[in-house]
Write a structure and sequence with these properties.
The structure holds two protein chains of two kinds. By secondary structure, chain A is of the alpha/beta class. Chain A has four helices and seven strands, in the order αββαββββαβα. Chain B has a domain of about 120 residues: Rossmann fold (3-Layer(aba) Sandwich), CATH 3.40.50. Classes of the chains: A alpha/beta, B alpha/beta.
Chain lengths: ~170, ~200
């Protein structure tokens, strides 16, 4: 029997009950929102349950929603069942003031650098990560550049040489 | 009997083959001798044997490949030998976007070059950051190392890169023998925190 979205939803609902906050299917891809402190339990269940078999972590990223007070940062996991070729998106929402979620490095080794990247750009604190430091930006950077906290262009910056291109 | 080489038709006389020779520097010439000052001879030698070190990170580097190719052929200007060791090279050609994380690398490559050394910033990104007016990109390599010649363009055509090399050659020709002892040059390097 091929794996269906309905079956995944049924399994997750049975396993997580009220910890499964929302379920959405858009553009042919299912997306589950779970409680922030249950992210690792959800990923482990989806990984270990033989009838689900989401054993490949495609991507980890985050989105900043400044208007969602108290849950500004969404950490997004993209999972892939390589046998059934079905993808699943898991979202957890955390406040930007204390962006703490559990690390998935124990489950997926490939999550290591993805979480470092997510920390680098959004400042998500992955609890239990073995080496949580910046991976793409310079080490001296003291802000998280992809948070929607900055004006699009700062007209007072001094590191741009205006004479060169006549701005 | 002459050697049966069919292609050896061109004589050693080069006057009719359109080959340009560099102009003689100022000096005194007579029967069998030519006298000029040492710095002019050294300048002439340096100018026509610049070894470029390409630091190519993006599309300007592709234009540089065309510049080195047979069509544009930078070798015509004495820059035949592209070196990939900073210790051997005279001209650092930075071509492409330099991210802030790459900045210390550019600086280190520059420091590893022996005096006298020249730097050419090729393209908008190396000159000023170009379109990448963003948090992660160095807004011009002159933030970290001194630059002699800027080549504008996004990317510049090979002709523009050759023009930049010719400008470098003009600088090299008139450079003093021991620029590193010059107070002005020392002050410039001091401005970049380089001893």
């Amino acid at each position: 029997m091929p794996l269906t979205h309905a079956y995944i939803n049924e399994q997750l609902t049975a396993h997580l009950s009220e910890k499964l906050i929302a379920w959405e299917e858009s553009y042919g891809m299912a997306s589950a929102t779970v409680q922030a402190d249950h992210n690792l339990k959800t990923l482990t269940f989806l990984h270990d349950e033989p009838s689900l078999g989401f054993q490949f972590m495609t991507d980890i990223t985050a989105v900043h929603y400044p208007d969602r007070k108290g849950e500004e940062l969404a950490v997004v996991y993209h999972l892939h069942n390589l046998v059934e070729n079905i993808r699943l998106r898991i979202k957890v929402f955390v406040p930007v003031a204390s962006p703490n979620v559990y690390t998935a490095t124990g489950l997926f080794s490939g999550a290591n650098w993805m979480e470092r990247e997510t920390f680098d750009f959004y400042g998500v604190n992955f609890i239990g990560h073995p080496d949580l430091r910046r991976v793409l930006n310079v080490d001296e950077m003291d802000y998280f550049p992809l948070r929607k906290e900055y004006p699009l262009e700062d007209q007072t910056r001094i590191d741009k040489d205006d004479e060169m291109f006549g701005r | 009997m002459a050697r049966p080489v069919r292609f050896n038709l061109i004589t050693k006389d080069t006057s009719d083959r359109g080959i340009n020779q560099v102009d003689l520097p100022q000096g005194h010439m007579g029967e069998g001798f030519f006298a000029t000052s040492l710095d002019k001879v050294v300048g002439l030698a340096r100018k026509n044997s610049i070894w470029p070190l390409p630091f190519a990170t993006s599309c300007c580097g592709i234009e540089f490949m065309a510049t080195m190719g047979s069509h544009y052929d930078l070798a015509r200007f004495g820059s035949e030998r592209v070196g990939f060791s900073p210790r051997q090279c005279d001209l650092l050609m930075v071509m492409g976007t330099i991210a802030k994380k790459m900045g210390p690398v550019v600086r280190q490559v520059y420091l590893q070059m022996a005096e006298p050394r020249w730097v050419m910033a090729v393209g908008a990104c190396a000159s000023s950051g170009g379109i990448f007016d963003t948090y992660s990109v160095l807004q011009g390599i002159d933030q970290v190392i001194p630059v002699d010649v800027y080549v504008p363009g996004c990317p510049p055509r090979p002709e523009a890169i050759i023009d930049g090399v010719l400008k470098i050659q003009d600088l090299v020709q008139d450079e003093s023998l021991r620029r590193r002892n010059d107070d002005h040059y020392k002050a410039l390097l001091e401005g970049y925190g380089i001893q």
